Amino acid sequence: MREIKYRYCLDKDTDELLFIGELNKKTRYDHNYKCLECGQDMEVNMGQVRRPYFSHVSGCACDGESYLHKLAKRRIRMKFEDSDSFNVVFVRDISCSESDSCVLKKDFGCGFHDERIVHDLKSWNNKPLYDCCQEEEPCGGFKPDLLLTSKVRPELPPLFIEVFKTNKSTDDKINSNYKIIETRQIKSEEDIDDIIEQGFVENENCKFFNFVPKIAKRRKTDVDVTRVVIYPGGKTRFLSHGEVKCGMMNIKYDPKSLCEFNVQSFPHLHEGTSSEYILLPSQVALDWAVKKGMSIRNCMLCDSYRYNDSYSRYMCIKYKVLGDSFKFPNQYSAQECKEFRYSSILSNCTLADLQKLGTEVIEQK
Predict the structure, then answer these.
(1) Helices 189-198 and 64-82, axial angle in degrees (round to 10)
(2) Mean pLDDT over each residue of the chain, to the nearest integer
(3) What is the DSSP string of 35-57?
(4) Which of 202, 217, 225, 313 is the 20 to 30 Å CA partner of 135?
(5) How far is Cα 221 from Cα 232, in angstroms, rounded to an integer?
(6) CA–CA separation, 282 and 320 (whole Å)
(7) What is the pairing mode between strands 200-201 and 87-95?
């Protein structure tokens, strides 16, 4: 462990915690100093080059690890006692409020990642929480570094704050169901500064055990949605690069369209079964429109429209019969094709099957 330049010590007469940054060359003589850990006499060092610090008069430094542990407990307790609030920040994934019913959540997760939810240890919804902080006070067979309790609300379960310097919280303590805030390993005075300045931030300067915060779901509106627009005659337009967001799922993209559908990017028909089949989003939309009674003839609905690995694209497998112009057909080729046969896979697909893969855009007035 690197040598610590002590920035804190105690007033020998009052036991008050002193910070080197609050002293200058005049006020340095206003106190008698002792070490927070070992109690030995300390003195102020204020040179021209190095940052000011305290050092032991005897020249024999005590255990720096114990110093950091005691300093962290003392400063956290003082922060709690001297402040109107003490933040705890939960960093969690939040589900979209529509995620339970959204068939497109497979594409984009329907949520917010690593959202910061700020709570206060001292109050919640204008009701007081913890108002008492004690060092190493026994509770329930344990002796936490800091114990938070409430005098105003004695029925409130106590909360443990554990300063991780050498030893983490034991399994017995974690499994006790007491709420526990355990700091990340304290390696320097700056690690303590971070807690004092920010509060406890999950996964950054601490871990939380046995907390179940109430986190309200929120509507997500800014995620790209795959949209298939169908025009009179059966021509489709495929939108997938930010042209439609999930907050616009019930708003038509083109007023001139015949119908529009939001579809999963990689729709799996009968997913997880022996008859599973991967469709194109446009196939889902076109078949949906046909099953709703629209008269559409498009090559993507044909049994002969297949993906070819050699060409890395879809083609008509009957182009040798129909002619080379049908090898890679356009969307209107089916209208004059004598070999058009409706896809057997789509024929066996029900409207209910399609509704698991997307939604029809029914514009809300």
Answers:
(1) 20
(2) 91
(3) -TTT--EEEEE--SSSPPEEEET
(4) 202
(5) 30
(6) 25
(7) parallel
Contact indicator for 9, 54 with CB cutoff of 8 Å = yes
pLDDT tens-place string over residues 199-233: 999 999 999 999 988 888 888 888 889 999 999 88
Distance CA 213, CA 64 (A): 36
Tokens at 346, concatenated: 């789509």
Q: Nearest Cα to 168, choosing from 182, 181, 188, 178?
A: 182
* SS3 call for 73: helix
pLDDT for 1 beyond 50: no
Residue 305, SS3 per DSSP: strand
The predicted pLDDT at position 183 comes to 97
Q: What is the pTM of this model?
A: 0.72
pLDDT at 264 over 60: yes
33 in helix, strand or coil?
strand
Residue 138 in 3-state DSSP? coil
* 270-281 burial: b if 16+ Cβ within 10 Å, else e: eeeeeeeeebbb
Q: What are the C-alpha distances in Å from 27 to residues 46, 55, 359?
A: 12, 17, 73
Which residue type occupies 279?
L
- Structure tokens given for 117: 């939810």
Report how far residue 161's alpha carbon sits from residue 211's, in angstroms, rounded to the nearest whole number.
13
Q: What is the pLDDT of residue 365?
A: 42
Residues 332, 338, 341: CA angle, nearest 5 degrees: 80
Low-confidence winner among 99-113, 157-171, 212-226 (lowest mean pLDDT): 99-113
Neighbouring-strand partners of residue 92: 115
**Measured between alpha carbons, how far is 135 from 10 in angstroms, rounded to an integer?**
17
Give the burial string for 258-268 (b: 16+ CB within 10 Å, else e). Answer: bbbbbbbeebe
Phi-psi category of residue 323: left, alpha or beta, with phi > 0 → left and psi -120 to 50 → alpha: left
pLDDT of residue 106: 66
> Please, which residues bridge with residue 124 across strands?
127
Query: Which residues, 6 or more positions from 213, have their beta carbon under 8 angstroms from its beta carbon?
Result: 90, 92, 117, 119
pLDDT tens digits for 9-55?
A: 999 999 999 999 999 988 999 999 999 998 999 999 988 788 899 99
